[in-house]
Amino acid sequence: MDFRNEVDGGLTKHFTLDDLLTNVMIYWITNSAGTSARFYKEGILDPANSQMAKASIHVPTGIACFPHEPLSSPRAFLEYKFKNITQFTRLSKGGHFAALQEPMLLARDLFAFVSQIERK
């Protein structure tokens, strides 16, 4: 976790200040910061209260694992939940905001997953 040694956490290595402000403004203007955090509170911090957390997923599933994702799970745990993992990719860089940090890397992985599903 090399970002801890950075003065600003390394934010400006991945994002421009304009990108960060735009992202914050979307949450601010739409008044959705609280509701976006609700997913984490109800689904991750207290999974015992969520029926969805107990359900298995049987559709073809692609999983992209980014090295700086703080909420990642071991593959064995994911296989318990997702019964049909057709693509499991460990990517070389990126984190929780992969679509902003590494859009091309994420897009290539998504296209590879869709291509794989279309061939079946």
TrEMBL record:
The protein's matches in SUPFAM superfamilies, at most eight in alphabetical order, are given as: alpha/beta-Hydrolases
Keyword tags? Hydrolase
Give the domain of life.
Answer: Eukaryota
- Molecular function terms, GO-annotated: epoxide hydrolase activity
Mention one GO biological process in which this protein takes part, according to its record: epoxide metabolic process
Q: Which residues cross the membrane?
A: none
Which Gene3D superfamilies does this one have? alpha/beta hydrolase
Against PANTHER family, the record matches this protein to: EPOXIDE HYDROLASE, EPOXIDE HYDROLASE 1-RELATED
Q: Report the family membership.
A: Belongs to the peptidase S33 family.
What is this protein's record name? Epoxide hydrolase 1
Q: What is the lineage of its organism?
A: Eukaryota, Metazoa, Ecdysozoa, Nematoda, Chromadorea
